[in-house]
Structures are given as C-alpha cells and as structure tokens.
Amino acid sequence: MKKEISDHIDDFSVTKSEFKLTDALRSYAVFKEKLNELPKQKRPKSDIEKAQLFREIHENIATPTLFRKSDSSNSTLSLMWFRRAKKLATMFVALNNVVEFKGISKQDLKELSSLTQDLSNLRKLEEILLAKGIVLVFERSLQGANLDGACYLLESGQALIAMSLRYGRVDNFWFTLMHELSHLVLHSEQLSSPIIDDLDSDSAENIIELEADKLALNSLIPKNLWRTCPAKYSLTPENVIKFSEEIGVHPAIVAGRLRKELNRWDLFSDLVNEHDVREFL
Questions:
Q1: pLDDT tens per residue across span 160-186
Q2: What is the pTM of this model?
Q3: What's the rounded Cα separation, in Å, for the pair 135 and 215?
Q4: Where are the domains of the chain?
Q5: Alpha-helix runs per DSSP H in 133-206
Q6: Which of 27, 161, 192, 235 allows an S-S link to 58, with CB 3.0 to 4.6 Å?
Q7: Torsion angle (degrees, nearest 10) of CA 160, 166, 167, 168
C-alpha cells in the first residue's frame, strides 16, 4: 500500500519532503473505505480520478469540510462534485485576469437582490461577481450527492461559489446564491476549507448555517418588510405578486419563502414553477 500511495505523490500540490507517509496511510484507509461505499457506476475509473479523490479525502481529514447534509446525502460524492467545480474555477483563474477577493458586504447582497425581478439579469451575475473576485461556477450535481452549493477561498486568492442547479426554481436559485454569498460575508476566515450545502437539510443545530440562512433571507426580503407581508395571511397569488412588486423582488421568492415557512408545498405552484433558471443560464 505504501508504494501505491507513493506512486501518486506527484499528483499532490506538495513536495515529497512535505508529504507525511504516515498521514497518507491513514488517509488511504479512509479513501478505500469511501471508495467501496460508492455505487459502482459512480466510482472513479482512471488512476488520475482516484488520485484526485484520494487527495480530496486526505485534505479533508487535515482541514475538514463543513457539510450541511441530509441522511441521504453522500459526502464522498459531494467531495467529488466539489473537486470538479474547484478545478473549473482554478483553470478559469489561471487563464483570465481575475482580481483577488477582498470581501463583500451586506449592502452588496441587498443590491444583488434588486436583480431578481428581471430573469435576464441571471446572465450578468458571473461578470458582477468576478469584479469582486468571486468565481461563480455552475456544475451539475452527481446523483446521490443531494447538494445545492458550496463556497471556498481558492489558493490563488479568489473566492469560489459553486452551484449545482439541482432545482430550476427562481426562489431556490436566489436563496442558494445568497446563502453562499452570506458565508463569504460572515465566515470568510473559515473558508480555507470548503462549505458544501444541501439546503433541504435542517440547519437548526449549526450556528454557521443558521447565520447564513438568516442573512440570505433578510437580504432578499428585509425582516421589517416581511413582518407586514399581506400574503402571509391571505395566501393569495395576487397579494404575493403585489407585495413582490412593492419591495422589488421576483414573486417566486415571496412564494417560495411562504411555502418553506408554512411547510405548505402545495401553495403557489404556478408562481414558483413558471420559470426554470437553467434555461436562462
């Protein structure tokens, strides 16, 4: 087993003198265990893909990824997905002149929320975020990973936000984006390791996720306005649309928040399913 690991040392961004074989042996045991847990059709086929997964698991043991996931989520598939998104972002940064990430503010999030009304603004997001040193990557999720997004600070100094677009709903897209941006606002000092999110799972026991949820919600609809939302009481599409126009957000965002808070997924189906953001992106 030592020889098998040593053969792949060159695939790591460390020198052989920095590579501790004893740590790698422990990582390799975890790697083999995780590999065997994957469905056969999802297992890496090539030696390079296996080495990349080995590296991700090895790095994750040293600096653990923060997962927000449900019981049905597969953390190994999530790491494989994140590795793909990170590779795309790293290549993009290497080929383009992207400024370093110097931070993002709560006011920036509020300004972004004004873009939600017009779906054509979705195509502008990558350029807007790049100007702030944030690389936005859309990478299709692996079946069984059950994830929505991730954020991370690249070694080159830029921030990465990855989105799986597993749902095409407008409300899910904007909440996921705002949630990951909220991590950059609130938790950037912790993002030398990635945060990978399944936003269908409960965040009640994770303070970092609760903070990001709260900021994302308030950035899209300020809490003082949400308290007085007539649609919360009438539950009519007409009031949802009227309120969304008054506060300057897409009606699907208001409808989606009501569905989530009331646990009434039967409400406003026409509003939330009218558009699929994947068609615009």
A1: 999 999 999 999 999 999 999 999 999
A2: 0.81
A3: 21
A4: 1-62, 66-280
A5: 170-187
A6: 27
A7: 70
